[in-house]
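Milestone M4 deliverable, item 7.
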Amino acid sequence: MNLSDIRKIVSARWRFNSDEYPHIRTMSPEAHRDFSRSHILKHAMKSLGKMAAISEDADHVEPRLQTPHAEMAVLIAKMLVNLMQLADSYGITNEELERVIRDEDV
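Output delivered:
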């Protein structure tokens, strides 16, 4: 799977429309864009908080005990979904992301 495949799945499954968020019917395009970005960031922060909690909890157990792999996989996937949505909201293409990852010091 590549960024294009992920973006297609994300855009098909998770949409910011009036079916999911009825109050956006009355929003201007700019307000809708701003709401979408803010909501995406809230989801990302929520996932990061959960990752931090899991990781911090693991600091207090025996080193041989692993951080819950399956939970982290789900949270990382959610972050990827959020990041792809955020890229879409800013009009950032897959090619731009790939170029930055390849050519920049990220």
